[in-house]
């Protein structure tokens, strides 16, 4: 029969072991940072659920019964093993120190790192995190970085990669006023006749051609327009200001599509694609601080 079948908890068993070893409810209560009345209630509950007495007590002394002696002998090695395991975890926690250096885009920070950062810093008070917002490729090894976060298709083949987010989609958006002013957009090539907000890729020093796909047909459109930016967040702001058509991540556009400030176009041409991956060099040993981050990201995923 298992402990949970009896309704017995490890806390109750541990409390019994402390009382039995100290042979005093007062000393045991002080050690466990509880009151003697609470501790006495815990032992009574344990005995009720076990169906036999484990302690003999009177106004002057506490001793174990024969059944209590047997139970204590069984518990000792198990509780010692638990204590050793907790000490090991605490030592591991203490080893998570130093500075973790990450390179990522602002979108990756918002989607991946920002949600876990408070918990990470609370769990590892000796850890420091240095975040570099980059859109160009960074050489992790040459630049003394621990890891990077990029879209899956951008990760170098010689890196170990961990998927840290769901699939993403792009969205072609404009204000209702803009859509009402200009001719309809029913095919990606129609964008060539519109005021599109261009994005300059710093790494390639080139203007990004908007990429579309539908039923196996792929189309890359070198859009034109009066505005070009190197910061994706500006594309959203400019679209909201009615300055043209933007090509942005679907989840960034979602609140404005919902409240009607933006209209989505060409939805059937923007299928999902691989989302964000954290990548790091292929090494036999990784730093404890990076291992801790990877563990937290895996748990969240």
From TrEMBL:
Superkingdom = Bacteria
Q: Does the keyword Ion transport apply?
A: no
**Keyword Nuclease tagged:** no
Name any one GO molecular function: sequence-specific DNA binding
Keyword vocabulary terms for this entry: DNA-binding, Transcription, Transcription regulation
GO BP field? DNA-templated transcription
Where the record annotates domain HTH lysR-type, the positions are 8-65
InterPro entries with a match to the protein in the record: LysR-type_TF_proteobact-type, LysR_HTH_N, LysR_subst-bd, WH-like_DNA-bd_sf, WH_DNA-bd_sf
The family classification in the record reads: Belongs to the LysR transcriptional regulatory family.
Q: What does this protein do?
A: Transcriptional regulator of the ttuABCDE tartrate utilization operon.
Q: What is this protein called?
A: HTH-type transcriptional regulator TtuA
Species in which this protein is naturally found: Rhizobium multihospitium
